[in-house]
Design goal:
There is one protein chain. With 803 residues, the chain is of the alpha+beta class. It folds into 4 domains: 115-206, Pdz3 Domain (Roll); 234-501, Distorted Sandwich (Beta-galactosidase, Chain A, domain 5), CATH 2.70.98; 505-626 and 711-763, no CATH class; 636-710, no CATH class. It is built from 18 helices and 28 strands. The longest helix has 27 residues, at 542-568. Mean pLDDT is 82; it is low at 1-31, 41-59, 741-773 and 786-803.
C-alpha cells in the first residue's frame, strides 16, 4: 500500500508528457505544405522571394470596367458586338448586330423581346442620385447617338438615367417594363444626371439584336437553378506538377483571378478593334519561389469583309514568366457559356444518338480524326446528379489516343446558333495534344425542374499539357471564337458543318433545302416556298402513292373472303396461312407490294421534315408580311398569349403541355388529320375494327396536344401534305373501277369461273349473286387432306386393288 502511494505521488510531480501530434489524413500534410492548394496566400516577404522585384500595382487595385468591341453602326459593317468585363477578363455579352444586304434592318433580332432598344449599357442601380448608372455605351447604339441641345452627342459612362419620357426609374425592371411597351423606331426622351448637371436627351429606339451570349437572362428565360457565368475565363491548370484538385475550377491560390479585375490596356488592331487584359499573379503566389508570373489576354475583332464573314472573335492568351528560373505550367481555358435560350421550350433539335435526346445548350466537339461528338445538356445534368462529388463530365483524358485529345472545334450548340472555339490560323496546334477536357452544369443543378433540364446552363473547359517556360519567356495560345448562326454555308466556311444534325437521311434533307431556297428566290416568301416544296415532293411521289392506294383498295375488296377464312380456322394458324396464300395466289395479290411504296416515301418525308426543322432561314420570316401573327416560321404561330391567366401545367415555358401561346395552325393540322382518317379509312365491319378506329382518333387528338408547340413552318408542311393526300385519294378513285367484291367462283350457276390470274378489273367488278361458301368449303376440304399418306394408308389402297 505504501509503495503504491509513493508511486502516485512521484507521478504527480513529474512534468506532463508531451502528446504526440495527430497524424494528418492522407494527402492533408502535402496540401497544407503546398501554398498553391491554400485558399489564401500570405503577404509577400523579402525572405520568401528575395529575387522578385515589387510591381507597381496589385491585382485588387484595378478598377472595374466594361469594354465593347464592334459597333451597331451599319456603316461599320460589324456582325458582332462584344461586351467584355475586367472581372475575369471574359465575355459578358455577345450580340449579333449584322444587317441585311438590302436594308439596315438587323439580320437576327431577339424575337421574344423585339421591342425598343437603347443598347446594352451595363446598368447598375444608383441610390444618389436615384436612377440607373451607365457603365458602358456601345458604339453606334441609340444611346451613343442620342442628341442633347446642351451637351455633346451620346450618353456617357457614369451618367445616371433618372427618367424616360414621363416614367421615373428606380430599378432595371422599371426600364425593361417601359421598353417592352415601345416599338423600334419610336423616339424617347432620356433624362440623365451628369455630375452636377441635369440633361435631357432625345433618341430613336432600335430593334433588339439577338444576344447569342449573355450573363443576364431575360425574365421570360429565367430557369430556377441556373446561374450565369462569364465566358472564356483563363487560369493555370498546374504549376510545377501541382494540379487543380478534383471538382475544382482553379488552383485554390489562383481562385481570386476569376473574381478580381484585370488591368485593361489598349490594343491596336488595323481595321478593327481590340483590348488587352493583364493579371499579375505575384500577390496570389507570394509564398512560392515562382510568384512572378503574369496572365495576359488579348481580344481582336474585325468587321465583315471580303475574306471575313465577321462572326469570328480572336482570343490570344499568354503566360509570361518574369521569374529568374524556368517554370512548368499547364493552361486551363474555359469555353463559352450562357448561350441564348430563345425558343428552348418549343425547339425540335435532335441528337445524333438514337437513345438520347438533345438539349438546348449541348456541348459539341470534333476530334482530330474528324468525328463529331455531342454531349447533350441532359447527359451533363445526369452525370452531375449521379456523382455530386465530381459534377464535371470528362470528355476525354490523358490516357486516350492523340486523335481523341486533339480538337478541330469545341463549343456550345443550340438548334439555330452555335458558339465554338477553333484553332487560330496563326496557331494551328493550339487545340492539339491536349491533356483533358470536360463540361459541367453551371448553377444549382439539383433544383432545376425536370421539365426544364434541357435549358440547363452548361460550360466546358480544356487543359493543355504542362510545358516549361524559360525565364523571361512566355507561353502563347491563340484561338478563333465563332459566334454565329447555324447557316450551312457559314458553318462550312469554319469547319462546323457537322453541327447541323439532319437525322438519318441527310442525302434527302440537304437537296430539299436547296430546292426550298430556290422556290424562295422565286416567290420571296418562305411560307409559300414550303407549300411549293411540299406539293413538288408529293407530285413526284404520286406514282408510288397511287400504287399504295390501289393496293389498299384491292385489300379492301378481299376483306370479306379473308374474314371468312379467319372464321373458318380460328385456332389453326397453319391452315389459315395456307388458305390466305391460296387466296393471294388466285387473285395475284402481293400484300408487301402495297407497303413498298410507303417504305420508299418514308425517307423522303422524314428528310423533308428535318430540312424544315434545321433551316435557320425560316427564323424571323413571316407567313404574311406585316402581320404579327405567324411572324416566325421557326417557332409557333403565337396567335394569343394566354400565359397570364392559363394554368402553369398548361401554359408554362417547358413545364406546360401547350406553352404560353394559343396557336391556330396546330388546330388546323389536327382537324385535317381527323378528316383524312375519316375519308381514307375503310368502314368498320366489326366491333374490333370500330374500336381500333376510335382509338386512332383519340391518338390523333393526343398527338395534336404533343405537337401544339411545333414551329409554324412544319405546320404548313403538315397542312399542305394532308390536303394533298385528300386530293390524291380522289384522283386515284377516279382512275379505278368502283370497288366491289370478288368475282364469282367456278361453281357459280350464273357465271363461269375465271381462268388464270385475275386482272384488276376482274377483282374489283361489282358484287356477284352467287354464294361464295362452296369455294371456301372446297379449300377447307383440300387443306384437311394429309399432304403425305402414311404406310398403312398406302397398304390398304393396294389391298383394295387386288380385290
Amino acid at each position: 500500500m505504501l509503495s503504491t502511494c509513493l508511486f502516485f505521488m512521484w507521478m504527480s510531480l513529474q512534468e506532463p508528457a508531451r502528446q504526440k501530434p495527430a497524424q494528418p489524413a492522407a494527402g492533408q500534410d502535402s496540401q497544407e505544405a503546398n501554398p498553391l492548394l491554400k485558399e489564401e496566400s500570405q503577404p509577400p516577404t523579402s525572405q520568401a522571394n528575395p529575387e522578385i522585384s515589387p510591381t507597381p500595382a496589385t491585382a485588387d487595385s484595378f478598377p472595374e470596367r466594361l469594354i465593347t468591341l464592334g459597333s451597331m453602326d451599319p456603316a461599320k459593317k460589324y456582325n458582332l458586338l462584344i461586351t467584355l468585363t475586367s472581372q475575369g477578363a471574359g465575355i459578358q455579352r455577345a450580340e449579333l448586330v449584322g444587317r441585311f444586304d438590302t436594308s439596315d434592318k438587323l439580320r437576327f433580332v431577339a424575337l421574344e423581346h423585339n421591342h425598343g432598344y437603347l443598347g446594352y449599357l451595363g446598368l447598375s442601380e444608383s441610390i444618389e442620385p436615384k436612377g440607373l448608372k451607365i457603365r458602358v455605351v456601345p458604339d453606334g447604339s441609340p444611346a451613343a447617338v442620342a442628341t442633347c441641345a446642351d451637351a455633346d452627342v451620346g450618353l456617357q459612362v457614369n451618367d445616371v438615367i433618372t427618367q424616360v419620357d414621363d416614367s421615373p426609374l428606380s430599378s432595371i425592371d422599371d426600364l425593361n417594363n417601359w421598353l417592352s411597351m415601345k416599338k423600334p423606331g419610336q423616339s424617347a426622351t432620356i433624362q440623365i444626371q451628369r455630375a452636377e448637371r441635369s440633361l435631357s436627351y432625345q433618341c430613336a429606339l432600335s430593334q433588339t439584336p439577338l444576344d447569342i451570349l449573355r450573363t443576364e437572362p431575360f425574365a421570360s428565360e429565367v430557369v430556377p437553378g441556373n446561374q450565369e457565368l462569364t465566358s472564356l475565363r483563363t487560369t493555370l491548370e498546374s504549376i510545377n506538377a501541382t494540379k487543380i484538385p478534383i471538382g475544382k475550377s482553379s488552383l485554390p491560390a489562383l481562385a481570386q483571378a476569376f473574381q478580381q479585375n484585370w488591368q485593361v490596356g489598349s490594343l491596336e488592331v488595323p481595321g478593327g478593334s481590340g483590348v488587352e487584359f493583364r493579371m499579375p499573379l505575384q500577390q496570389m503566389l507570394n509564398s512560392t519561389e515562382f510568384a512572378n508570373l503574369e496572365l495576359v489576354k488579348r481580344y481582336r475583332l474585325l468587321p465583315k469583309g471580303s475574306d471575313n464573314d465577321g462572326y469570328l472573335l480572336d482570343l490570344e492568351t499568354l503566360v509570361v514568366n518574369n521569374n529568374q528560373q524556368p517554370v512548368s505550367v499547364a493552361v486551363r481555358q474555359e469555353g463559352l457559356t450562357g448561350l441564348s435560350l430563345e425558343g428552348w421550350w418549343y425547339s425540335v433539335k435532335i441528337s445524333q444518338s438514337f437513345f438520347s435526346s438533345a438539349g438546348h445548350r449541348d456541348v459539341a466537339f470534333g476530334d482530330g480524326s474528324g468525328v463529331h461528338h455531342l454531349k447533350s445538356t441532359r447527359d451533363i445534368h445526369s452525370a452531375a446528379s449521379k456523382t455530386p462529388e465530381q459534377p464535371h463530365t470528362i470528355l476525354f483524358s490523358e490516357g486516350e489516343p492523340l486523335e481523341r485529345r486533339s480538337l478541330n472545334y469545341i463549343g456550345v450548340d443550340s438548334q439555330y446558333f452555335n458558339a465554338s472555339l477553333l484553332p487560330h490560323p496563326a496557331s494551328p496546334d493550339s487545340l492539339k495534344d491536349l491533356a483533358r477536357a470536360g463540361a459541367w452544369a453551371v448553377g444549382d443543378w439539383q433544383t432545376i425542374n425536370k421539365s426544364q433540364i434541357q435549358a440547363t446552363n452548361v460550360a466546358f473547359w480544356f487543359e493543355s499539357r504542362e510545358q516549361s517556360i524559360a525565364a523571361g519567356q512566355s507561353l502563347a495560345n491563340r484561338y478563333s471564337i465563332f459566334l454565329g448562326p447555324k447557316d450551312a454555308n457559314v458553318l462550312a466556311n469554319h469547319g462546323l458543318d457537322l453541327t447541323i444534325e439532319y437525322g438519318w437521311f441527310p442525302w434527302v434533307a440537304k437537296p430539299l433545302g436547296w430546292l426550298l431556297h430556290f422556290f424562295h428566290a422565286i416567290v420571296r416568301n418562305y411560307g409559300i416556298a414550303i407549300i411549293m416544296l411540299t406539293v413538288c415532293v408529293r407530285l413526284l411521289l404520286f406514282p408510288l402513292g397511287r400504287r399504295a392506294a390501289i393496293a389498299g383498295q384491292r385489300m379492301q375488296a378481299l376483306q370479306p373472303e379473308m374474314k371468312k377464312i379467319i372464321e373458318m380456322y380460328p385456332d389453326n394458324m397453319e391452315k389459315r396461312a395456307k388458305a390466305m396464300q391460296e387466296l393471294y395466289r388466285k387473285y395475284d395479290f402481293k400484300p408487301l407490294a402495297g407497303c413498298l411504296p410507303l417504305f420508299i416515301q418514308l425517307p423522303i418525308f422524314i428528310g423533308l421534315y428535318r430540312c424544315l426543322s434545321v433551316d435557320i432561314s425560316l427564323r424571323q420570316e413571316g407567313l404574311i408580311p406585316g402581320l404579327a401573327w405567324c411572324s416566325n416560321l421557326a417557332g409557333p404561330d403565337q396567335f394569343y398569349d394566354w400565359s397570364g391567366w392559363m394554368w402553369e401545367y398548361l401554359a408554362g415555358r417547358g413545364t406546360g403541355w401547350l406553352g404560353p401561346y394559343f396557336n391556330i395552325l396546330p388546330m388546323v393540322t389536327v382537324a385535317l388529320f381527323l378528316v383524312q382518317q375519316k375519308m381514307l379509312m375503310p368502314k368498320a365491319t366489326d366491333p374490333q375494327t370500330q374500336m381500333t378506329q376510335t382509338m386512332m382518333k383519340y391518338m390523333t387528338v393526343f398527338m395534336g396536344v404533343i405537337f401544339f408547340k411545333v414551329p409554324a413552318g412544319l405546320c404548313i408542311y403538315f397542312i399542305t401534305s394532308s390536303i394533298w393526300s385528300l386530293i390524291e385519294r380522289q384522283l386515284v378513285k377516279r382512275s379505278l373501277p368502283p370497288p366491289g367484291t370478288l368475282a364469282a367462283s367456278s361453281n357459280s350457276p350464273t357465271e363461269p369461273a375465271p381462268t388464270g390470274k385475275l386482272k384488276i378489273a376482274d377483282r374489283l367488278k361489282p358484287e356477284a349473286t352467287a354464294d361464295q361458301s362452296s369455294k371456301l368449303d372446297r379449300w377447307r376440304q383440300m387443306l384437311d387432306k394429309p399432304a403425305v399418306r402414311s404406310g398403312t394408308q398406302r397398304g390398304s389402297a393396294r389391298r383394295k386393288k387386288k380385290k
